[in-house]
Amino acid sequence: MEFKKLIASLFVAFASISCSNAQKEAFSIEALTEKIVSIDGNQITFQEVLNQYKGKVVVMEVWASWCGDCVNAMPKIKELQSNNPDVSYLFISMDKTAYKWKDGIQKHQLKGDHYLALDGMKGTFGKAIDLDWIPRYIIIDKTGKIILYRAIETDFEKINTTLKSLK
């Protein structure tokens, strides 16, 4: 009987872990209603940002100027942009200050649309998108559906394959 309890407990634990990493097709209400800051300093909801991309494929990168893995992935994102010029690129920074964020954009010459999360990785927006690592990439199709919810800097092959499937 104890063996069955152990197996059941392991199954529940595995199912919980699997569900937390599950592919999502839409952002949560918490994420959509969270305000982020535009490059000109205005606050805008994440939903309002996404509305600007209707009918477009979007690669969203969540990053920070202080993140070594993010900086190391910059050549890959630039190559991705070069190979996929018809795709829109949305960058959301987890920097702690607007100064560091804007300095990072300029230093790394990031081409795309830029926003700053107000409360960093562990804040409301980060939690709402299940942020546990940066850089984090999310691909959204032309209909607004999330096609790839969780990719990191080692997943560029998966990112490229996903983008090719959307052409």
Automatic annotation (TrEMBL):
Record carries keyword Disulfide bond: yes
Principal cellular location given in the protein's record: other
Record-level Gene Ontology MF annotations: oxidoreductase activity
One Gene Ontology cellular component: cell envelope
Annotated ranges, domain Thioredoxin: 23-167
GO BP annotations, alphabetical order: cytochrome complex assembly
UniProt entry keywords in alphabetical sequence: Cytochrome c-type biogenesis, Disulfide bond, Redox-active center
Lineage: superkingdom: Bacteria
Annotated compartments: Cell envelope
PANTHER family: THIOL:DISULFIDE INTERCHANGE PROTEIN DSBE
Protein's name in the database: Alkyl hydroperoxide reductase
Organism of derivation: Flavobacterium psychrotolerans
